[in-house]
Request: fold
Amino acid sequence: MMMNFPRTNIEKQLLRSRNKRTSEDRFLAEINSVFKQNEDIDQDILKALESADEKNISNSLNFDLLESNRIFHISDIQKICIDYRLRFLSSSLFKAEIPYDAIMAIRKLENDHNTSLSGFRIIAPARLFKLENADDPLLMAPMGNDYYYLIHKWGNDLHPFRKLLMWPFKQLENFIFSMFLLSLAITYLIPQEIFAQGGKQTTTEFLMILFFVFKWVGGLAIFYGFKKGKNFSESIWDSKYYNA
Reply:
């Protein structure tokens, strides 16, 4: 006759082993202490993220532990910010909520490198910053010599046509050329019978209409730009002022 042995419940075995090692009250006290310590570390990181931006901060990182695909020079950051009309500003100006995953990424980096990080900066659209009067963030920390280390990225990727849509606002030359193309398209859409004698438009008449349409488009653009305090991407990528 075969004997049926009960199956081993690992959960119960773990609990039995823990209770032999320490009492439940002492165990709960240990857990509470660990959670309190972790909470204090998280609060310190949040304070560092919310602290005012300081000049020439350089974090001490172990080069052998760094991932090369996360290291970026300020010139690369500047180019991307200008192309996609983004800002590269202190994390203290960031008004959206920073996810807990980002805090955990900072904690991991600090533990790996046995250091405390500061001088955090974020790449994000201007609307996500609390800009002073004058669409997916990347959290970075300075390494010195104008190099930055990418700590964490969250949110959705940018719209696939954002670079193209923001091209006119990159610099003055792009803006003027874009206004000219828009004026040309509007001029082509105007029926020839309105201004042409005999229903057929001459080249001179077309150029005259184009000139007036360009002035109209340019006037609206200048009015909107002054009213909203807008500027070109190459001038504002690292500015904390919305009308810089």
Observations:
- Helices lie at 10-21, 24-50, 74-84, 100-113, 162-166, 172-189, 203-228, 233-236.
- The mean pLDDT is 76.
- The two ends are 90 Å apart (CA to CA).
